[in-house]
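Action item from last week, closing it out:
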Amino acid sequence: MNKEIIENGKYVELTYKVIDKNSGAVLTQVEFPLGYVHGTNEVLAPPVMAELEGKEAGKVIEVPIDCSQLYGPRDESLVITDSIHNVPEEYREVGMAILMESEQGQTKSFLVTRVDKKTVTIDGNNPLCGREVIFRLEILMVREASEEEIEYGGKIDNGPDLEGLEGVTQVPVQQQT
C-alpha cells in the first residue's frame, strides 16, 4: 500500500518543537497535534512548509531556521523599560503578553521580559528574533482532505446539529486577529 505524502490538498497532523540551535533548549513545543490542509493555509513559516512537502506519516524532520531572516533584525527601540508603578499589577510577571496600540491604531504584542523591584521591561520583538533554531517536526498523519476541510483549512469536528431546533440561535464566531 502506498503511503500518502504531504502535498497540496492533503490533511496533515503533526507535532513540533522549536529548539535553540546554540543551547539545545526547547523554546516552544505543541502539546496537541496541529492539523491543517497543506497548500490551503500556512500554519508554519514558509521554509518549514516547503520542507514538509513530499514527506510521509511517521517521518521526523529537522529544519534549521535563521529567525533573523523570518522576522528581520532585532529592533532595540521595541524594548521599553518603565517604572513598576506605571505598569498595572497583572502585567508585572515575566512571560505576560501585553497588546499595545500605536497612535496610528495598529496593535502589537509585547512580552514582559524582566521585572525587578523598580522596573518592568517589555519587548515587542518576536521572541525568536535573532536566534537560530531547529524546527523538529513529527508527522503523525497524512490523508486526503475532504471538501469542507479544504474550504475551512483544517479538520472539522462534528458538533451538534442545531438546524431546525426551536429556541436555538447560532451565533457566528468572531475570528481572532
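Closing note: Confidence is low (pLDDT under 50) at residues 159-165, 167-171, 173-177.
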